[in-house]
TrEMBL record:
Coiled coil: none annotated. InterPro entries: ClpP/crotonase-like_dom_sf, Enoyl-CoA_hydra/iso, Enoyl-CoA_hydra_C. It comes from Bradyrhizobium valentinum. Belongs to the enoyl-CoA hydratase/isomerase family. It comes from the Bacteria. Pfam families: ECH_1. This is Enoyl-CoA hydratase.
Amino acid sequence: MSEGKIRTETHDRIFKIIIDNPAKKNAFSPAMMEQLSDALTELHNNDSYWVGVICAEGKDFTAGLDMPKFFGPTAEKRNIREGNVDVFGLGKRCKKPIVSAVQGIVFTIGIELMLAGDIVVAADDSRFCQMESKRGIAPLGGAHFRFLSRTGWGNAMYHLFLCDEFTASRAREIGLIQEVVPAGQQIERAMALAAIIARNAPLGIQVTKEAALKYVEHGEKAAIAYIPTVRERVLNSADAKEGIQSFIERRAAVFQGR
């Protein structure tokens, strides 16, 4: 059996990150975690990439961790590079917008990975479960607060306490995901959304994400105080000038990311 890995592809301004371990339901090894962190760091640092898409090979997004490789006598060493993006967005978070496409089994860290991004497209056969407490542990990748921020207290506690499996339609109903599409179309739809995002000014998109995170992390006062930074970052940019000129000339803007 071949070892699982993280693959990447470049599609114009879109950096596609692919979880590739379908023989084991895309379960993550420590090496795959390192590779995903490296890929997210490349997306973060490379000015050629304006949007990221995270998706997976096979019928399932991920069944979670390959547990023996993380815990116990056969555990493998993890070597995340200093300064890298945290795959769960608990430390350094990717500044670029990320669209995740999920399908089939989306358990434990699968939910936490998609919630560390920004937009989620789910196949209608997706099955979600944050089941750690059924195994005597608890979520460690951010589910305890990102469920809350996405779905509200009652919905978050309902699924975190029950550790139940729920459908894509339920996930959409409570706001955990944004779109449901027929199985097999989730990656195509995520790429289409990424292409729409990539037609917008990347500086504007990135600073919007930064400003939104200011609110999430520090509240409304901090978000308001950040507005002058937003203004300075975008109003003096070449892309702002292009946006105004394209409006005057009644044509689509062509942004350069500067």
